[in-house]
Amino acid sequence: MTKITPADIDDYSVKHGIHRHSVLELFAFEAFARRAAQVNQPFMLKGSLITRQYLGPQELESSQRQVADLDWVYIVPVDTNNVNHIRVTLDNWMLAVTETHIDDGVRFRSFSENRFWRMIDYAMDDDFPTVNTDLLVWIGGEEFEFSLDVSLNLKIDPPPVPLLYKPVSGEPFHLSYTVPLSLQIAWKLHQTIVRPRFKDLLDLIWLLRNNQIDIAAVWRALWDECQHDKADINLLKLLLDVDDPKAPGLSRHPLYTRKIKGYRGALINPDSLDEAWQSWRHSSVGGYRNNLASAQTTVHHVDLLPDNVYDVLKDIAHELHQSGLASLIAAIGVPRVDKSWRNICSRIFKNNTTSS
């Protein structure tokens, strides 16, 4: 096993033009995942670490996608009324992972020394609770602290898939439970329906461009998500409307135009959608006046992003067409989610449910 040294951290930072803190974060996340793989309990890895595993060579070479968080899902259903049992289950997992020794130049503080789950009692009031804790790690002798999230009772359909995880340092390792690509894409499409974010559009472009997609599985998972929260799946048609550069479909999203009372903004709602893109792309602090994180929290090299939002929207429309998902979106005739998935989509799945 290759040991991470301070020189490795510096070299990776310089080679890829990435802030040293981001390198430490990536190394810490992957070291935790490596240990979790050895412990092999029913916890599924999702989020940006998995997104990176499905990127193409161009995005990986430029280290374009940042890792912003470390997200896990406990895939065994739990009784949220039994908080003590949940706490013990999570504690035992964290103890096993943080006390697993691997000779890779990384050492975690045992969870026994700072055993806590932030707001765990209050979190159990949610349908899909998420709890959070903090971990301390030494990477090449350098101390680093980060947070970790675990979600509970989250429906995972299609089920978790095994993955040979390829870290930036050290040998690949096998994870028994990771979020399926089809579900990852469905979640990002659902996010675009309910609260469009530029980072999800970029992820969708990269994931659709570089992978073979089971569009039937994507659509089934997306349909279930929309049925659960009554999200209007018809809004995805806005992503296909890119005929007019001055008025792309996404600019008419009800959240962007603030047609929903109390909305505080996934997009900052300036005079144009492109102005929102420019603010997100160039601002080092983000549009926090409307709760918008900056591009620098999503990608390492903002200068590699398209100059204007219309190029982004053309790319997402193109990838939706190439994958076959555009045909499903166009087939939606009523802007509601109360018709069955089969009634709307059966004719599209007669011959082929996959597309490259």
Give an overview in words.
The chain has 356 residues and is of the alpha+beta class. The chain has 2 domains: 6-179, no CATH class; 183-355, no CATH class. Helix content is 39%, strand content 13%. It is built from 13 helices and 9 strands. It has helices at residues 6-16, 20-39, 48-53, 57-61, 83-98, 120-123, 181-194, 198-210, 215-229, 273-282, 309-323, 325-330, 341-345; strands spanning 43-46, 71-74, 106-108, 130-139, 142-152, 161-165, 173-178, 213-214, 354-355. The strands form 3 sheets. Strands 1-2-5-4-3 form a 5-stranded mixed beta sheet. The longest helix is centred in the first third of the chain and has 20 residues, at 20-39. The radius of gyration is 21 Å and the shape is globular. 35% of the residues are buried.
Concise structural overview:
The protein has 356 residues and is of the alpha+beta class. It is built from 13 helices and 9 strands.
Name some characteristics of this structure.
356 residues, alpha+beta, 2 domains, five-stranded mixed β-sheet, two-stranded antiparallel ribbon, 13 helices, disordered C terminus
